Amino acid sequence: TGDIKGFAFSQCSHCNNHSVWNTEKNSLIYPKNNTRNFDLTEIPKDFAEDYEEACLVISDSPKASAALSRRCLQALLRDQGFVAKSLAQEIQDAIDSNKLPSHISDSLDAIRNIGNFAAHPMKDTNSGEVVPVEPGEAEWNLDVLESLFDFFYIQPAKMQARKDALNAKLKSIGKPEMK
Fold it and tell me: Where do the H-state alpha helices sit in the chain?
């Protein structure tokens, strides 16, 4: 253990791993820790990687997290067949499809807008200052992605597993399977 002004260093007595803490912010700097607890088992690998990275950087840079969330959203929408010239149009097409529950479609455009704050230096018309990405906005992006993951990947996988189990039971008693 030890410290340098503003930082503390320690070694875990159980696993012998080292950690670095910012003592002014009382936050863990190393190793990076994902504070969100979302099961990514059913999520395609590329999306899961972008999502996890967005989670890992959120405390250091909400801006970077928002940009990664925006990237993940566009890839997810394209995977679902919403392909257009711009993310704004892909989002609009997803909303107009009426496939999404309203609680998701109502928040879908937030990822694009917040991601734009991250990717493009937009200035406040009153103060002239560049509009930052706030931590709560970056968290909202992750919440929306989790809702999309649940809707497009997790729930269909759960339903398929239940259907498969019921069909196996029906087959074992000589009944026709569900369609």
Answer: 45-57, 62-79, 87-96, 102-119, 135-149, 155-172
Residue 121: cis peptide before it, omega within 30 degrees of 0: no
User: What's this model's pTM, rounded to 2 decimal places?
Assistant: 0.77
Query: What CA–CA distance (Å, rounded) separates 2 from 161?
Result: 51
DSSP 51-89: HHHHHHHTTT-HHHHHHHHHHHHHHHHHHTT---SSHHH
φ/ψ of residue 11, rounded to 5: -130, 130
Q: What angle do CA 149, 73, 97 make, to 5 degrees?
A: 80
Q: Would you state the structure tokens that stand for residue 127, as one six-digit string? A: 């103060």
pLDDT per 10-residue tile (average), the chain, 179 residues:
76 78 74 79 96 90 89 96 94 95 90 73 66 83 96 96 94 92
